[in-house]
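Recap for those who missed Tuesday's class. We walked through two folding examples back to back. For each one, the amino acid string is listed first and its predicted structure tokens come directly after. Nothing is annotated here on purpose, so try labeling regions yourself before you check the end of the notes.
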Amino acid sequence: MQLDAAKAIIEIKKADPEIEKFFNDSAGYAVFPSVGKGGIGIGGAYGEGLVIANGQVIGETTLTQVSIGLQLGGQVYSEFIFFKDDVAMKQFQRGNYELGAQASAVAATVGASADADYDKGVAIFTHTGGGLMYEASVGGQKFKYQPVQ
């Protein structure tokens, strides 16, 4: 998974060089190299990722999401969650973290990170092969965290 995470990081930095500030200034981040999302009426998403702080992998994490509503089809994307400070990072590390229903990833074209900022201690970005972003509904995502041994 570390190789996939490294590739996802390279791809998002290539798509939007301004995102480097989040890698440099955050207390740490979670990277999900491949999140699969799809549904017909009822949808879901799942991904496995790594949590990184000070350039070191400190944990593994999983992302799950269930959604109900008008939806059809599927998509694969990478997701990045940056933690502004140790407080935000520790909340995630408690093991059962959930994004509120109103949470959204930065939705825009390449270069979106230049105007992006943290909300409640986190900044969330998604990346598809077509560039930084699709309309990202990340509200209701749940995360499990496991420290590396």
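Example two. Treat it independently of the first, because the proteins are unrelated.
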Amino acid sequence: MILGADEKQTNNECLKPLLPGFSSESTLEHEEPCSLQYYFDNFFMCYTLKNQFINYYRYGQRPDCLSKWKDFVWCIRTKNRTIDEQQKMLRDKRLQKLAALKLGRNSEEIWSLRVHPLDSLFNRTNSSSHSSTC
């Protein structure tokens, strides 16, 4: 599927709220409503054997499906509110997710920032440590 110029611009505008440095008030006037199907599928998939196995293999414990259930119930609650209350709830949820991403664990905890580039990354000056097989 090839997107036209108008569709590409719309897609880029939808991504702006996810980027750091944008305030919620200035970039969005209308939040997309939550999808009950999306949240239910996430909750249901959390209990599948494949997901249980992958999570246990990666993290050594069962996945936290309670958070998926809470998201699903939260989405149901938004459907019973007025438009203004829905928008406020959706905006707050999005900002909470962004804050959790910023405050959560990331690769900067593992990798240190390199200030200067490596000079001898591909330089094989020490030939005694590398045996030639050619």
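Answers for example two:
Helices lie at 5-15, 24-27, 36-46, 49-59, 66-79, 83-103.
The radius of gyration is 23 Å.
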